[in-house]
Design a protein that fits this description.
- InterPro entries: Beta-gal/glucu_dom_sf, Galactose-bd-like_sf, GH, Glyco_hydro_2, Glyco_hydro_2_AS, Glyco_hydro_2_cat, Glyco_hydro_2_CS, Glyco_hydro_2_N.
- Residues 13-179 form the Glycosyl hydrolases family 2 sugar binding domain.
- It comes from Georgenia soli.
- Its EC number is 3.2.1.31.
- It is an enzyme of class 3 (hydrolase).
- The chain has an 8-stranded parallel beta barrel, surrounded by 5 helices.
- 19% of the residues lie in helices and 32% in strands.
- Helix 5 (387-404) runs parallel beside helix 6 and helix 7 runs parallel beside helix 8.
- With 596 residues, the protein is α+β, with helices and mostly antiparallel strands.
- Strand 31 (504-508), helix 8 (527-541) and strand 32 (547-553) form a beta-alpha-beta unit.
- The chain contains 9 helices and 32 strands.
- The protein folds into 3 domains: 12-178, Sandwich (Jelly Rolls); 182-281, Sandwich (Immunoglobulin-like); 291-593, TIM Barrel (Alpha-Beta Barrel), CATH 3.20.20.
- Bound molecules: beta-D-glucopyranuronic acid.
- Beta-D-glucopyranuronic acid binds next to loops.
């Protein structure tokens, strides 16, 4: 799905700001037609933001079910004759939207965009009312899964993943125009002719443009200075770029693919510009190659998580986080455990940060659930994660690939984090999803992230994965507090994975650490322990040739559900939740940049 943009033929209006907001715990709003007029008994709520922590008290923090959002905006006068589209960059986890009194769309899945053509419902120059009901409930048929438990004191949301179920409108909402004949999609696949490592490589860009309506397509590729380097007529083809400036880690060089749709008289009907990074990705043996060169992932699993706004997108917080990644010497991150805001991926594209892009399929694991206080007998069964869940999961993969397929920063898809992966049921569930991802994606490696409860000698899913991605907590959840034993166990297991002959990325390793807690006896939770723990992992990684990357868990402390294993959230951050460095941040900076 194309991201809205301003162009010579298109305009956007952001609907961010304060919306009217009303929780609907009893779920009466739909029948009572709350969309049919100004929302009664409403308070102000910022968009984008999670609603959970904006208001003091338990009620909204732990709300289960519907909430209503409403705003009005004036449709610009100049939009007469244009096609008008209403787009939500996300609504967590499902939403139904009305324009005036007309229902225009519903969407399932909390982290991908959805939109509707509302041309017939708006009048340029006049006000329009937009109402959305957003439901945060997780069930066995959602990604991620969860369970609502009814109690004497109301419903309680339970889930088996380790981050708080923030909900609401986390990302911008747009009203935008296109002409009535318009570019509806574009797919670009970059390549390099001949030697990728040549001093003056020849780049290629396969393109495929979809147009709604009649028109001739012309494309031009401009370099970062605006100079045309290639052009073609027709909706699909291949452009060749002599002496291409490749997109590379640390060098987010982007070309502009200017797409033009021309009418019969040659007049410009629509134009849309797609950013293009020319680079290749390939797995060869135990190496992960970008532009033919071995790439070693240094960075973190992260979260969209901040005080007050929860998962709400904010440019200041985003740029600050990227600056911290740069300071610490990270070259990559994983969008653990859901697709991040498109602004984040735009930034990664433009700055040469490498991304492993993950779906929200997290918490499909009874053993992980048990650590977090949730008891489930069987995760994969007709009554729990089932074929119906797989349909929702498949759609989440389709929407993620459709959204991010053209991004040079995205070098691999992760279709799930830490599912149970050693049982026949899990294999039966996942095999078709790997097949689907491979059909959708032709040029990137794909994979999933393995958990310690499905070790190398039992796992049944890594055969479908191009890269071995594993999360390990030797020295924390096992060999607790004993780094000497942990070192042996970690190395022994990595040696087993090495037998797969694939690159290995440690996608999570880390220790909960209370900022400011110091101890010279090696006590867990201290800043010293976190540093020693990471140091030990690094020693082991440096001994194992198949290692292709290290992503520390986590970039920063983050909020979780209430429980006896978390103190105000997960404390495995290398930065605190308000982004102050723990001692480990300096250790990582020394390892990753060579600077003190
Ligand atoms: C892994 C999960 C991650 C958790 C982490 C932890 O992938 O979401 O936050 O462990 O326990 O199981 O800190």
């Amino acid at each position: 799905m194309l991201r809205p943009q301003d162009s010579a033929t298109r305009e956007r209006r952001s609907l961010t700001g304060l919306w009217r907001f009303r929780p609907d715990a009893d779920g009466v709003g739909r029948a009572a037609r709350w969309f049919a007029g100004p929302l009664a008994e409403a308070r102000d709520m910022p968009v984008p933001a999670s609603y959970n922590d904006i208001v003091p008290g338990r009620e909204l923090h732990d709300h289960v079910g519907d909430v209503w959002y409403q705003t009005t905006t004036r449709v610009p006068r100049g939009w007469a004759g244009e096609r008008v589209v209403l787009r939500f960059d996300s609504a967590t986890h499902r939403a139904t939207v009305w324009v005036g009194e007309t229902e225009v769309m519903s969407h399932e899945g909390g982290y991908t965009p959805f939109e509707a053509d509302v041309t017939a419902l708006v009048t340029p120059g006049e006000e329009v009312r937009v109402t959305a009901v957003v439901d945060n409930r997780l069930s066995w048929e959602t990604i991620p899964p969860g369970m609502v438990v009814e109690t004497d004191h109301g419903p309680r949301q339970k889930y088996m993943h380790d981050f708080f179920n923030y909900a609401g409108l986390h990302r911008p909402v747009w009203l935008y125009t296109t002409p009535t004949t318009y570019v509806s999609d574009v797919t670009v696949v970059p390549g390099i002719e001949g030697e990728a490592t040549a001093e003056h490589p020849t780049g290629t860009v396969d393109f495929d443009v979809a147009v709604e309506g009649q028109g001739d397509v012309r494309v031009r590729l401009l370099d970062a200075e605006g100079t045309q380097v290639a052009a073609a007529d027709g909706a699909s083809g291949t452009l060749t770029v002599a002496d291409a400036h490749l997109w590379a880690p640390g060098d987010g060089y982007l070309y502009d693919l200017v797409i033009e749709v021309l009418g019969a008289d040659g007049a410009l009907v629509d134009t849309y510009t797609q950013k293009v990074g020319i680079r290749t990705v390939e797995v060869r043996g135990t190496e992960f190659l970008i532009n033919g060169r071995p790439f070693y992932f240094r960075g973190f699993g992260m979260h969209e998580d901040h005080l007050t706004r929860g998962k709400g997108h904010d440019d200041a917080e985003m740029v600050h986080d990227f600056e911290l990644l740069d300071w610490v010497g990270a070259n990559s991150f994983r969008t653990s455990h859901y697709p991040y805001a498109e602004e984040v991926l735009d930034y990664a594209d433009a700055h040469g940060i490498v991304v492993i892009d993950e779906t929200a399929a997290v918490g499909m694991n009874a053993a992980v659930g048990a650590v977090l206080g949730m008891t489930v007998d069987q995760v994969f069964s007709p009554d729990t994660v089932s074929e119906r869940t797989r349909e929702v999961h498949a759609q989440a993969i389709r929407e993620l690939v459709a959204r991010d397929k053209n991004r040079p920063s995205v070098v691999m898809w992760s279709i799930s984090n830490e599912p149970e992966s050693h049982t026949p049921e899990s294999e039966e569930y996942f095999r078709p999803l790997f097949e689907l991802t491979r059909e959708l994606e032709k040029h990137r490696p794909i994979g999933f992230v393995n958990v310690m409860y499905s070790p190398a000698d039992q796992d049944r899913l890594m055969q479908y994965s191009d890269v071995v991605m594993i999360n390990r907590y030797y020295g924390w959840y096992n060999d607790t507090g004993d780094l000497a034993a942990a070192e042996d166990a970690l190395e022994a297991e990595l040696r087993q994975w090495e037998a797969h002959g694939k690159p290995i990325i440690m996608t999570e390793y880390g220790a909960d650490t209370v900022a400011g807690l110091h101890d010279l006896t090696g006590a867990m939770w201290s800043e010293e322990y976190q540093s020693e723990f990471l140091d030990m992992y690094h020693r082991v990684f440096d001994r194992v040739d198949a290692m292709a990357g290290e992503h520390v868990w986590n970039f920063a402390d983050f909020q979780t559900s209430r429980g006896i294993v978390r103190v105000d959230g997960n404390k495995k951050g290398v930065f605190t939740r308000d982004r102050r460095p723990k001692a480990a941040a300096h250790l990582l900076r020394r390892r990753w940049t060579g600077r003190a």
